Amino acid sequence: xxxxxxxxxxxxxxxxxxxxxxxxxxxxxxxxxxxxxxxxxxxxxxxxxxxxxxxxxxxxxxxxxxxxxxxxxxxxxxxxxxxxxxxxxxxxxxxxxxxxxxxxxxxxxxxxxxxxxxxxxxxxxxxxxxxxxxxxxxxxxxxxxxxxxxxxxxxxxxxxxxxxxxx
Length: 167
Ligand code: RB5
Hints:
Elements: E1 17-21, H1 26-39, E2 43-45, H2 57-69, E3 75-80, H3 84-90, E4 98-100, H4 104-112, E5 118-122, H5 128-140, H6 147-159
Parallel strand pairs: 1-2, 1-3, 3-5, 4-5
Helix pairs in contact: 1-5, 2-3, 4-5
Bound molecules: D-ribose.
């Protein structure tokens, strides 16, 4: 009989996960698509379709942003060379909380405290085996809510150019 810790975690309740990359993130995207298949998570792959042609990361970031914002609770994964371009673009859109994660702790906390709805990875930065673990942690960690939810509300008010008090 297997112990509780060795039992596989139940598949997270994800209707469909939007995934996108540029040419520099393509190789890592293929690894990530494997993990998602292993986890039984339905995927909407929004490109790009290969590593050879140089493409513009903002174009693919916007496709995934639109898919995530299309329905409350949707989440996505973006990959470029460093992860920086994809995070900068994605975080310009109210309602998006994109977290660039290159370690397991950040991946976990981006869910617990920031309710990150987009995971961003750098295909030229993170080792594929670690990236696979990051994805698993990010997909299976819940948001804690409470005071963290209040902070996320402040974030959206700031995006709407309101000036919230600091209490
Ligand atoms: C592409 O060469 C590279 O600039 C892009 O993938 C990303 O790292 C930008 O932030």
